[in-house]
Structures are given as structure tokens and as C-alpha cells.
Amino acid sequence: MPLFRSKAEDKVRDAGYDPARLPPGQYLTEKWPVLHAGDVPDVDAATWTLAVSGEVESPLTLSYDELRALPATEVTTDIHCVTRWSRFDADFKGVHWRELAALCHPKPTARFVIAHAEQGFTANVPLAALEDEHALVAYEADGAPLTAEHGGPVRLVIPTKYFWKSAKWLTGIELSSIDKPGFWERYGYHNDADFWQEQRYGF
């Protein structure tokens, strides 16, 4: 067993967790590190909107209050960053995709999701990743509104992928019949981002 893996697993075990929860190449942290490209945008929840577009029968735009008026879901999930930190049992609250799907009516041709965010950032995932029971359009973390540095007022949470796929400062969800590499993918990050397979860079 690699020395890094052994020490990382020992830390997980000492913290009272099952080491099997830690993907390869990761280490456990109790903190929530802040990582992003560029500056933290100043987004006013009072004027923020979310557009759902693309391969849908009924495109829609929701305000922050309209999003929060939809049925809420709370999840506790592990999150894993490509920079190798993992945080267990992170709490998020928001709207599950099924609530938005009931409003926008995805077409049968919808197979991929392109998340659009402030400053032109995009992130792409298969639609199945957004449909996962722990995925959310999130507006709270750890019992409080999302802070700006963590993507507030609204971000994606896609826990089945490395966390760069969980776009901060979300402004749109586009459904597509074809995959469209996002911001980091165009800079060489792996398109699939499966942390169990250590799909960090390259296709």
C-alpha cells in the first residue's frame, strides 16, 4: 500500500470513520477549503435568477425566492476535491432536480447538463449525475445560507464527481443532447471526474 494512502487511511480511522469512504489519492479534512478561479463575485440574491434551458419543453427562469418556495431537500454527503482533500458528512439544503424537471419537462433528447455560472464559468455532467438522490441546486450549507466564497447564493452540488463539477454561483442549467466540455475540462481536467478512478486530468 502506498505510504500516502496508509497515512491518509490512518487519519480517517482515527477520526472514527470507515477508511473505505476515502477515495484513492485523497486526505480527510474537517475544514472546507476555498478554491476557485478568479475573484469571488458579488451576487445579490434579490436580483439573482436561475435559467433552465436547452432540451426542455418549457424553459423557465426562477428568482431566489421562487427557488426557495419549491419543495426543499436536505442531504448529508461526502465531497471530494481534485486538489485531494475530502470532507465527510457535509450538509446541504436546496432543490432537487426532480422539482425543476416537473416544471421544465426535459425532452427525451436531454442527456447532458451544462451548468452556467458567474464570470462565464461552465461545468458539464451527464444528466444522471444531476438526477442522483444527493445532487442539489443548493442554497444552504451546514445549516446556514451559502456564503459567497462557497458559491452563494446558489450553487450545484454533484457529489458523485470531483467537486469542480459542483458549479459555484450558479445562474443556469442547460440540458443538451450532446456533451459540452466545461471551463476546467477545456484546460485539461478529466471530462468524467470519477474520484474512485482518480480521473483528475486528461480524458
How is this structure best described in words?
This protein is α+β, with helices and mostly antiparallel strands. Helix content is 15%, strand content 30%. Strands 1, 4, 5, 8, 9 and 10 form a six-stranded mixed sheet that branches. A five-stranded mixed sheet has the order 3-2-11-6-7. Strand 8 and strand 9 form a beta hairpin. The chain starts with a helix and ends in a 27-residue tail after the last strand. The model has no long low-confidence stretch (mean pLDDT 94).
Features:
203 residues, alpha+beta, six-stranded mixed sheet, five-stranded mixed sheet, 4 helices, 15% helix
DSSP helix fraction: 10-25%
- Which regions are unreliable across 5 or more consecutive residues at pLDDT < 50? none
Overall mean pLDDT: 94
H/E element string?
HEEEHEEHEEHEEEE
SS field, number of helical segments: 4
What is the number of strand segments? 11
Q: Strand portion, in percent? A: 25-35%
Major β-sheet profile = 6 strands, mixed
Computed over alpha carbons, the radius of gyration is 17 Å
Query: How many angstroms does the end-to-end distance come to?
Result: 26 Å
Shape: globular
Structural class: alpha+beta
How would you sum up this structure in a few lines?
The chain has 203 residues and is an alpha+beta fold. The chain contains four helices and eleven strands, in the order αβββαββαββαββββ. It is globular and about 50 Å long.
